[in-house]
Design a protein that fits this description.
The complex is a heterodimer of chains A (246) and B (116).
Chain A (H helix, E strand, L loop, with lengths): L14 H14 L8 H13 L4 H8 L18 H12 L6 H9 L4 H23 L23 E2 L7 E2 L28 H14 L3 H4 L11 H14 L5
Helix pairs in contact in A: 1-7, 2-4, 2-6, 4-6, 6-7
Chain B lengths: L1 H9 L6 H5 L10 H12 L3 H14 L2 H24 L5 H6 L1 H7 L11
Helix pairs in contact in B: 3-4, 3-5, 4-5
Classes of the chains: A mainly alpha (246), B mainly alpha (116).
Chain lengths: 246, 116
């Protein structure tokens, strides 16, 4: 079992937040669909290491990231291609492009591994940023818990309007029905559906750290210590800082 | 953007949307300036600034506000990366509904805006 807890947090943390983080941390330590436990933990460690990379800092300052060549300062646990993916997503996500993504895939990184890397980065980022916000250090990464990657693609996955293959609402099979509840499923709720368990884990975190789907549009009451408007204000400000168009 | 506008419409006020992408300040949401300062500080590397803003939130608004603010900042710091790295497009309906806001806020000039 993982060790990520809030018993000693400087402020009281809701039980559903702690539970979602414990669930994600436990999954992080286990083999996924396409990455081994060790590889998932290596992605998490590299994501934390990326802000220290001199190449990434130089690229961030450049007019175009492509203008600066060099080698990433990495922990040496992943391939150079995977390090490029992790570092770019962590340090300069707004300047990613479809041609960059296509180049990564053409150089040999399987789309499935790419999406699982994205998911691991996202889960660790959500949790680490939260902990920073309440004055806590990043949690120690868990020990690998083994297992074998399942190496299965869900039925209904295909390339539509995102760079990565996803499942459209009309295409999902019974095993993914839980991902498509409700009349509308936003594009971001499909982004990680190539690996359904990663989508589930990320939005389990989202339900605790943001709001469950129905609560997002229920303005008859407030669900958190901050109002809907305050929640959306913080979300918008963070996305503005990240220069995220979505 | 849709939810920000909807939540504002359903509650009380007129939001100065340009402030969200600008220099912040009180912009129509209660304690909006302080919460935006917090978002800025969490995403910065300035630990002293973060400690000061966090302490002010705890003192003026309470611990639960700090926790929920950190929650939202954390999740959107992550979801932005999911959107950007998977090439997830804005839905046509959402883009149409928020076209005016995106113009006012300068979102169409964001680094992550679609390029021709």
């Amino acid at each position: 079992m993982s060790a990520i807890g809030y018993e000693n947090a400087p402020v009281p943390v809701r039980a559903d937040i702690a539970a979602a983080h414990a669930y994600a941390w436990d999954r992080l330590a286990r083999a996924g669909y396409w990455l081994t436990a060790e590889e998932r933990l290596a992605v998490a460690a590299e994501a934390r290491n990326a802000p220290n990379c001199r190449l990434c800092r130089a690229r961030k300052e450049a007019l175009s990231p492509n203008a600066v060549q060099g080698t990433h300062d990495s922990l040496g646990l992943l391939s150079a291609l995977e390090v490029e993916v992790v570092h770019r997503i962590v340090t300069d996500p707004a300047r990613l492009s479809e041609s960059w993504y296509r180049g990564i895939i053409d150089q040999g990184l399987a789309e499935e591994r790419y999406v699982e890397i994205v998911a691991v980065i996202a889960q660790v980022t959500a949790i680490d940023t939260f902990r920073r916000g309440i004055g806590m250090a990043p949690a120690v990464l868990p020990k690998p818990a083994g297992g074998t990657p399942r190496r299965t693609r869900p039925t209904g996955v295909r390339k539509t309007d995102a760079w990565v293959p996803t499942i459209a609402k009309a295409d999902h099979g019974p095993d993914e029905a839980d991902l498509f509840r409700g009349n509308k499923v936003s594009n971001i709720r499909r982004a990680l559906t190539l690996i359904p368990d990663e989508q589930r884990t990320f939005f389990k975190i989202g339900e605790a750290q943001y709001l469950p789907g129905p609560a997002m549009w229920d303005f008859t009451r407030e669900y958190r210590a901050i109002t809907h408007a305050q929640i959306e204000l913080i979300a918008a400000r963070v996305s503005a800082i990240n220069q995220c168009f979505y | 953007m849709q939810l920000l506008r909807a939540s504002s419409d359903k509650t009380d006020g007129t939001i100065d949307y340009a402030a969200i992408t600008g220099n912040g300040g009180e912009m129509g949401v209660p304690h909006g300036g302080l919460l935006m300062d917090f978002a800025d500080a969490v995403l910065s590397t300035d630990d002293r600034r973060l400690a000061a803003v966090s302490e002010r939130i705890r003192r003026e608004l309470g611990d639960a506000v700090l926790v929920d603010s950190a929650c939202v900042a954390g999740f959107f710091n992550a979801i932005d990366r999911v959107a950007d790295s998977t090439g997830t497009p804005v839905e046509d309906e959402k883009a149409a509904d928020t076209a005016d806001l995106r113009r006012v806020m300068g979102i169409n000039t964001f680094t992550g805006a679609p390029r021709a």
